[in-house]
Specification:
CATH architecture: Alpha-Beta Barrel
Structural class: alpha/beta
Number of domains: 1
Shape: globular
Distance between the termini: 44 Å
CATH topology: TIM Barrel
Largest sheet: 7 strands, parallel
Helix content: 25-40%
Number of strands: 13
């Protein structure tokens, strides 16, 4: 008996020393994933000075909006009607359990009071720390606060590529120096605004971002807050818009299908991010999805064992468009009635198809 116990311990010891920090799914992450999966529905918010132009955040820089105009929009950004509590209450009334906000997108603009750059919200006429107000409102109203963070920064002189879509090159860039700048941002975010439910990375696909940088960043985040969830856009393993991680690649804690419902998967956690209109950031008269489409999307996502991160783009005034707010409240009304088929369920046993989806809880379908 003693021999088998020792053998058991020896095997355990071998497993421990051969398990890298990257794949060590400890209990804190398991319980975090349980919380996150049970939540099923979150709010994504894309917002910044770009809303003044009505064009897409990050991507329109140097495309629909000339670079020198885009980079100066912040001087006119004064969203005096911004009220973090109203946004958070709307998310709660929509039945959402967590909120993911664009702390910094591909355009390099900081939506927080940073010591690392003057290109930030405190240098706008508004002069208020949006990230702090949202973090505080989430805490007050018991909504889990999460941040979106772009790895690439097409504006920063040290990041080798410039927008749109990395078409321009910056000859005097220095990626190692840029990486140190990134680490400083992450440390500042955790120090001033943490803890977070999720750090939702993006902008990892360009060549300057390597496996080594990704591994270092992932380790840094987990050292700052071991319980935080990290999506698969931290590393190089994501396959296109289907968002599935290549086996063996650093994939964080969950996969990220974009603008589509992810494939049925009960083994690997996943979350579809989908816009309520067409654009991520606000565009006047953007096409709004019908209530029916929103409900079907939520049901099919949950039936496939995934989460839905539904995106809104607030207006440059700081308000959420009334028609978007109404749509969210309608989803909330539906969830009030039928939420037990969504929250704290798992997808299946039947795979979703065009006319039905199933979820299960214990032995109830």
């Amino acid at each position: 008996h003693m021999k088998s116990v020792l053998k058991h311990y020896f095997l355990l010891w071998v497993c421990i020393i051969s398990t890298d920090v990257l794949v060590l799914a400890d209990d804190s992450i398991k319980s975090q994933l349980e919380w996150w999966r049970a939540s099923r529905f979150g709010m994504f918010i894309h917002w910044g000075p770009v809303s003044l132009s009505g064009h897409e955040i990050g991507w329109s820089r140097g495309d629909q909006v000339p670079i020198d105009i885009y980079d100066n929009l912040y001087k006119d950004f004064n969203p005096t009607n911004f009220n973090a509590e109203q946004w958070v209450k709307l998310a709660k009334n929509a039945g959402m359990k967590y909120l993911v906000f664009t702390s910094r997108h591909h355009d390099g603009f900081f939506m927080w009071d940073t010591e690392l750059s003057d290109y930030n919200i405190m240098h706008t006429p508004f002069k208020r720390d949006v990230l702090k107000e949202l973090a505080d409102a989430c805490k007050k109203h018991d909504l889990v606060f999460c941040i979106y963070f772009s790895i690439l920064d097409w504006k920063h002189p040290d990041y080798p590529l410039g927008s749109p879509g990395g078409r321009t090159k910056k000859p005097n860039s220095d990626m190692d120096r840029y990486y140190k700048f990134l680490e400083a941002q992450i440390k500042e975010l955790f120090r001033k605004y943490g803890p977070f439910g999720v750090v939702w990375f993006d902008g990892e696909w360009e060549a300057p971002w390597t496996d080594q940088y990704a591994t270092n960043l992932y380790r840094l985040v987990k050292s700052l807050q071991p319980t935080v969830l990290v999506n698969n856009r931290v590393g190089k393993g994501r396959q296109g818009m289907d968002g599935i991680t290549v086996p063996g690649q650093l994939g964080g804690d969950f996969d990220t299908p974009e603008q589509r419902i992810g494939r049925f998967n009960i083994d690997r956690p996943w979350e579809s991010c989908i816009t309520l209109c067409n654009q991520w950031s606000w565009k006047p008269n953007d096409q709004l999805k019908s209530l029916k489409e929103c409900i079907h999307t939520l049901v099919k996502t949950t039936g496939g064992d995934g989460n839905l991160l539904l995106n809104i783009g607030p207006m440059p005034t700081g308000e959420i468009e009334p028609r978007q707010a109404i749509r969210l409240l309608e989803i909330g009304d539906w969830l009030e009635k039928y939420g037990e088929s969504i929250y704290a369920t798992r997808g299946g046993p039947f795979k979703p198809n065009s006319f039905m989806a199933s979820t299960r809880k214990d032995n109830i379908i």
